[in-house]
């Protein structure tokens, strides 16, 4: 399933580093995504001319597994919602409301076990297959993975202009003495992102080379000061 491969790639940067040891055993993020897709298929409702898939998913993890997901819960929920949209779009299903995902602790579950309850919860309005496809496509955007000493920050490029610098009001605030107050910006238009240096003192590097302005490609590494930021096209 291509959407699950994309799911693994998008979460890959978060599982690296701080999370690499955490996810060596027990439930893996992609296992949860696979179960969500399976439950969508099992719980879908077939009408005369349409198929409606579940849009609410309650995911229960064991007491051993649940704490491992705390630091990435928000990102995981966001990506699982995208999996729901992509799966429904791929199979031509509609949704009775926007995707909802919530994680719980299943006190009776053993380590490595999980339960997923899928239900159809009526939203403000139904989302027919054509609108589901549009919503799934709209969910594709760029993101930045800011690699710091003991963590990875995930910053979605969900607006046209994203600024990088030491100023607190920057969209991506970097606590690095080698970074200028207003260091660089990334402009996204028509699905294409461009990195531009804003006259910083130490300059901006893209894949090891000093640049002034350059379009970004998936996997590009931006260096400001000593901080490395990876660009992902998701």
Q: Which class best fits the helix and strand makeup?
A: alpha+beta
- Named at the architecture level, the CATH assignment of the largest domain is 2-Layer Sandwich
Report the count of strand segments.
17
Q: How many helices? A: 4
Q: Which residues form runs of ≥5 with pLDDT under 50?
A: none
Which class of the largest domain in CATH terms?
Answer: Alpha Beta
Helix/strand order: HHEEEHEEEHEEEEEEEEEEE
The name CATH uses for the topology of the largest domain is hypothetical protein PF0899 fold
Mean pLDDT: 85
Order of strands across the widest beta sheet?
8-7-17-16-13-14
Q: What's the helical proportion of residues? A: 10-25%
Intertermini distance: 16 Å
What proportion of the residues form beta strands (DSSP E)? 25-35%
Biggest sheet: strands, sense, closure? 6 strands, antiparallel
- The rounded Rg comes to 20 Å
Specify the CATH homologous superfamily of the largest domain.
Answer: FhaA, phosphopeptide-binding domain (DUF3662)
| Tally of separate domains | 2
Shape: globular
